[in-house]
């Protein structure tokens, strides 16, 4: 299959002052709106509509017609301290790996270098070979269970997928998040070749609805499985510590509450979430999460154990005085609808659905941090690909000391809210390098 490549470059605009936390949050929102140059649309009730993505700034330079990044104010100058890398400007190279994927949702790497992709509405798993673009269906009793026992309605269906780390307690095991007749649930199975064994339920009874189902799975650096759940249209459940809706859960590979949870008897790691669809960790161990807002702000949060992120009492910033954790970055809901999340040494990358962009949020601190000052202003990349659902760091490409990285990105134009083009949906490989 021919490989289509394109190259784009983002250029940041330097400023001479360092704002306070509140000023930075305000400036981030103004910068995002200036870069996007789009009118605010109607309230986002779920993944958001298929409206236009951000429009590039006039100062953007483009090396090929297929990329349209935006430009915003930069983070502070790079710190000489070890740890995170601050890279204010990046060059992006894009290559198509696979096409013709039907409403892809989850994305995970297998030990043999191939990629496991979940197809939400078809209730199926496929394996993609990045070297050839070949797409193979997963078969076996587990695949039959996913097809026959999964309910695909609206935003529900076969959602997140994760693979047990090779150095963990369940190396190579496959974990899936799906909607069953009795609610959302997490299952585990063994993939041998392309055959999936019978599935074992780990976490069941997670509230489900046609929207706000969360659905992301990811293994943390501690070896435990993190599960994101939406409020499933039950707004009050997000504040109920006894409910599984509107939470980030942390469990063992057998589904038990993980040691060290805020409540040892509960899988709940954090609460007060509306609809988290992305979690990832940076090299300092800081946990980040991308979250859909409702009427005003989408969020990037630093997640801490036991943290309450305010929904439905607070959307966006302003909840710290009431004991809630404020987001570190926000977007208008028409600009983002952030789903998948990946983190490199120099930035967080969020896959935007309604915003139709890969949002890059550069780090502004070499040693992490949980305040807005630890993050630079967002930049919009890949604004010509339509809706984006998932992003994953390529495990076969080491993160460069200069901030370079390779990412896999899933488009999501066939999910019922986009405008599909010939060949959609696609798996893209995106290489990020410092511009110079």
Automatic annotation (TrEMBL):
Q: Where are the transmembrane segments?
A: none
Taxonomically, the superkingdom here is: Bacteria
What ranges does the record list as Pro residues composition bias? 72-81
- Domain Glucose/Sorbosone dehydrogenase, chain residue ranges per copy: 102-417
SUPFAM superfamilies per UniProt:
Soluble quinoprotein glucose dehydrogenase (SSF50952)
**Location of region: Disordered:** 1-27, 46-83
- Compositional bias of kind Low complexity: 56-71
Return the protein name. PQQ-dependent sugar dehydrogenase
Q: Which organism's genome codes for this protein?
A: Cellulosimicrobium composti
| Taxon lineage | Bacteria, Bacillati, Actinomycetota, Actinomycetes, Micrococcales
């Amino acid at each position: 299959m021919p490989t289509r490549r394109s190259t784009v470059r983002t250029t940041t605009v330097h400023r001479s002052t360092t704002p306070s936390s509140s000023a930075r949050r305000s400036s981030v929102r103004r910068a995002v709106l200036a870069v996007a140059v789009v009118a605010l649309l109607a309230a986002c009730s779920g993944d958001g509509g298929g409206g236009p993505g951000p429009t590039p700034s006039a100062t953007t330079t483009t090396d090929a017609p297929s990329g349209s990044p935006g430009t915003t104010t930069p983070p502070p100058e790079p710190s000489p301290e070890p740890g995170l890398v601050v890279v204010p400007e990046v060059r992006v190279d894009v290559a198509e790996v696979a096409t013709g994927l039907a409403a892809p949702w989850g994305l995970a790497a297998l030990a043999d270098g191939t990629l496991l992709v979940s197809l939400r509405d078809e209730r199926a798993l496929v394996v993609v070979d990045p070297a050839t673009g070949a797409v193979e269906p997963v078969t076996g009793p587990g695949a039959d269970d996913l097809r026959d026992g999964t309910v695909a309605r609206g935003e529900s269906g076969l959602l997140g997928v994760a693979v047990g780390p090779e150095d963990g307690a369940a190396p190579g095991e496959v974990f899936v998040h799906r909607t069953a007749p009795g609610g959302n649930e997490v299952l585990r199975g063994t993939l041998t070749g392309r055959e999936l064994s019978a599935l074992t339920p780990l976490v069941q009874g997670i509230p489900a609805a046609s929207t706000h189902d969360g659905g992301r799975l990811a293994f943390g650096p501690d070896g435990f499985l993190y599960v994101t759940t939406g409020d499933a249209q039950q707004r009050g459940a997000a504040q109920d510590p006894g409910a599984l809706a509107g939470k980030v859960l942390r469990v063992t590979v057998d589904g038990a509450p993980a040691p060290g949870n805020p409540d040892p008897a509960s899988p709940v790691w954090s609460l007060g979430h509306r609809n988290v669809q992305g979690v990832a960790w940076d090299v300092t161990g800081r946990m980040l999460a991308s979250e859909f807002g409702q009427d005003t702000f989408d969020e990037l949060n630093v997640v801490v154990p036991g943290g309450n992120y305010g929904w439905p009492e607070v959307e966006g910033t302003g909840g710290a005085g009431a004991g809630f954790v404020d987001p570190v970055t926000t977007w208008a809901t028409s600009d983002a609808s952030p789903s998948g999340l990946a983190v490199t040494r120099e930035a967080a990358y969020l896959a935007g659905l309604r915003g139709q962009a890969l949002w890059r949020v550069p780090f502004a601190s070499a040693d992490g941090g949980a305040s807005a000052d630890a993050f630079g202003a967002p930049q919009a990349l890949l604004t010509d690909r339509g809706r984006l659902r998932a992003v994953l760091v390529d495990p076969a490409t080491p993160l460069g000391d200069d901030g370079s990285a390779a990412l896999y990105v899933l488009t999501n134009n066939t999910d019922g809210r986009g405008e599909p083009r010939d060949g959609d949906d696609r798996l893209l490989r995106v290489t990020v390098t410092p511009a110079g």
